[in-house]
Amino acid sequence: MDKAHGRGKSALKDGSSYEGEWVEDKKSGEGVECWADGSRYDGQFRDNSKSGEGTYKSPVGSVIYQGGFLDDQMHGRGSYHFPNGLAYTGQWARGCMHGRGRTTWSDGKKFEGCYENDLEHGLGLLTLPDGRVYRGTWVHGKHEGPLQRCDTKSDSLPQGVFKGG
């Protein structure tokens, strides 16, 4: 039986397609996968899975991820732009924000620090739209313990202690 090997294109009845490199009937190497809804992935494949560097775009471009993939999941370093204007750049593990990263909101608020399973977790810096900067510890997405103001916009740097956000 013949197996796809080299460069080629495959189109399925559901409207999805793949054009790129094949090895022993598997998507492997550089390629572009498109779905009937208009979303697409342009990047590296290994053994029929998105693995390596690539870019995913949703049908209208409202969601864009550019970075590392492993076994069809965001993994390694990458940037994700959400439809609501939120953007995250940093480390990913098996599809989750995990490790060091930075989230920026459309209003200018920023968080830079550690993430675990898509939530702020560990040490971080929170910058508010007015320029105030706070340093503290986050646990499962909520700041806990001392939260210290560390910008230079004020002579007095107030501190607070928070539990559960």
From TrEMBL:
GO CC annotations on file: cytosol
Any single Pfam family the record assigns to this protein: MORN
Q: Which UniProt keywords apply?
A: Repeat
Query: Which residues lie in Basic residues bias regions?
Result: 1-10
Record region (Disordered): 1-29, 145-165
The record's annotation in InterPro entries points to: MORN
Compositionally biased spans, kind Basic and acidic residues: 145-154
Q: What is this protein called?
A: MORN repeat-containing protein 5
